[in-house]
Amino acid sequence: xxxxxxxxxxxxxxxxxxxxxxxxxxxxxxxxxxxxxxxxxxxxxxxxxxxxxxxxxxxxxxxxxxxxxxxxxxxxxxxxxxxxxxxxxxxxxxxxxxxxxxxxxxxxxxxxxxxxxxxxxxxxxxxxxxxxxxxxx
Length: 137
Known about the structure:
The protein has helices spanning about 15-25, 55-60, 85-95, and strands at about 10-15, 40-45, 50-55, 75-80, 100-105, 115-120, 125-130. By secondary structure, it is of the alpha/beta class.
């Protein structure tokens, strides 16, 4: 029986690192100084997980069959914000900066305030408030 895997992170292919770092910096991630100029960037989170970003050059270095970026709305990178109002503020800040809103803020049936915005490469990024049990339907 194989060992149980431990989740370590998500790896996103990006066409332009500067554009990717602009989006994720605006979304509140701790983008390292000079990251916009690098071909590969990892941003660490509490608990040891990370999100990694690589340009086509890096992707092709280890995957000769790589087909290029192919974002899908079936995969959504998820982040928690501290409040329901923070979800609305994040959506307004990102769409105001020119990023495409995918789902405007809603009171979701599972009890969170929720929205999605597409990053510069079209990856859907979701933002959740904490769950309010009185809002579940």
